[in-house]
Predict the 3D structure of the following.
Amino acid sequence: MQKTHSLPIIVLAVLALVLGHSSATDVQDDSFSGQVILEGMIHLGDNTTPEWEEAAAEPDGLGEYVFKFKDSIGDSERALAFTTRDAHSEWVVKINGKYVCTLKHRGEPSEFVVPVPKGIIRKGVNTFTLSTEKSGDDLTFGRVKISDEPYSEVFDLRAISVKCVDSNGSPLACRISIVGSDDSLAKTHFADKSPFPTRDGVVYTNLDGIAEVLVEAGDYTITASHGPEFSIDQKNITDSGEMSYDLNFNLIHEVDTTGWLSADTHLHTYTHSGHGDASTDERIITLAGDHTEIAISTDHNKQIDYRPTMKKHGVKDEYTHITGNEVSTDLGHFNSFPLPADGAIPDASITNWALLNKEIRDKGAEVVILNHPRWPSFVKGPFGVQELNQETGLFTSGIDLAVDAIELINSDDEGSPFDVSIKDWFALLNAGNHVMAAGSSDSHAVYVPTGLGRTWVKSKTDVPSKATQRRIAANIRDGHSSAALGLFGVVEINGKGSGEQLKQPMSGLNLSFRIAHASWADVYHIDVYVNGEVVHQIEVPPHKDIAFDKTFNHTLADVEQDSWVVCVAYGKRPGAWWATDFPELYFASNPIFIKK
Ligand SMILES: [Zn+2]
Ligand SMILES: [Zn+2]
């Protein structure tokens, strides 16, 4: 195929060399003024890619592309803009042999602007190199432009420094959300070079409660949060020409969760799962900021030990770690833990759930959870494929569910509404499955908080590092736990809690439901279910902006058959800092079983 597109590139580069700066295309687009140094798009790699219309189907090179450009300004900080698609391998941009950036993978042609520090571009001829050590990866790259002005002036950057403490004045690791007046995520800069996990709209502090971030000039609401047990603290800044802001945040522990720890049963890193964007180092820091007390690593078909990275970052009492595995089959994903980091990996080619369950337990796991049963859609998720009947709780395929729990709340699976998930679960319970509910985040990315969906786990100790893996796993497996998004609760009947069983007593069934939340959260409605039927409803009086902790009591009618009781609470979702599209807050207790 004739590579007509590459001609202007060569012409441009040659012209730039021969004629100097004035010959190169000086353009003013909507982001900044500067010099275009590579006009078209090139294709590097070893495959034919006719579907990539922006560049030639045949490659212009294998693993390296070099061209020269002339600069008339000379040594100063600049911005470099370019467009790229499908950089899977580590593709590095260098100017004059000095590192500028590593390309990020995007499925579509996407524009990036990166800073070029002072000391790289020189007056006169410069050499631009794009290369990878792993040749064979196909990508497109081009539309490269260098700004005349420094990067920080191009974007009119403002520095925000934060310090977060708790009510004792002790440093507190926090998630800092930064949204504009129209609730848009603040554009952040130099994220790659920051020691603080940073993405548009968010930065996490270190364990000392400190973070710094560069954003574009504007008006912002900045929110410090530390999971569902703590208050938030918010500051508004308006752009008055100040170049930097020092903000102090003070968060209060508002929800008493004595006797319970919170687990995120579903966590990924880009490092080990290959999608999303959170490196293992970033994940270790975000877990502390989100106050996720039990962090269960579940990369796809891998068993990753977080502890060396936790040690590197000084994590001790902030949270504890359990190594797990998201055993990812063609017919469902199964979070399994604990599993030895150096142990054998369960065979993910098994799609019979009972056989898979045995395979996973043989490798050492004590808990198996079926994840996101309706993802990627109601019909294409495992419950759709196996045709779960939401009335009978039976699978048309006849498959045996064979797991300990299902994800009732996966805060990154916003396509599965809570009312659908709960209908599935209740049908399964009514069909006689001893299956518990779990909550998780499924976070792969820094922007997606850990522990947003979370599982509250009964615990003898309130210090995460003192809780044993075995005890945590047993309590999740046996339902001494609950699933939640933003709320905390405890349900008891005659002193028996979630996952426990009692015999119908002569004295009656006295249910108590304690529901609690921090001052930014809300609860407005509670349903009490017996065997999937609502037997009692509570409208909670409005109580804006206060920490809430109340116990509701109700006497249940005597049961006429073996029964199960679940309490569910709903709250209104908080503002734009709350990073999920789920429309409400939820709490669901695991069942208490009553023997007739
Ligand atoms: Zn999954
Ligand atoms: Zn996952």
Notes: Confidence is low (pLDDT under 50) at residues 1-29. Residues 260-485 form a domain with the TIM Barrel fold (CATH 3.20.20.140). The chain has four domains: 6-153, 156-251, 260-485, 486-596. The CA atoms of residues 88 and 366 lie 36 Å apart.
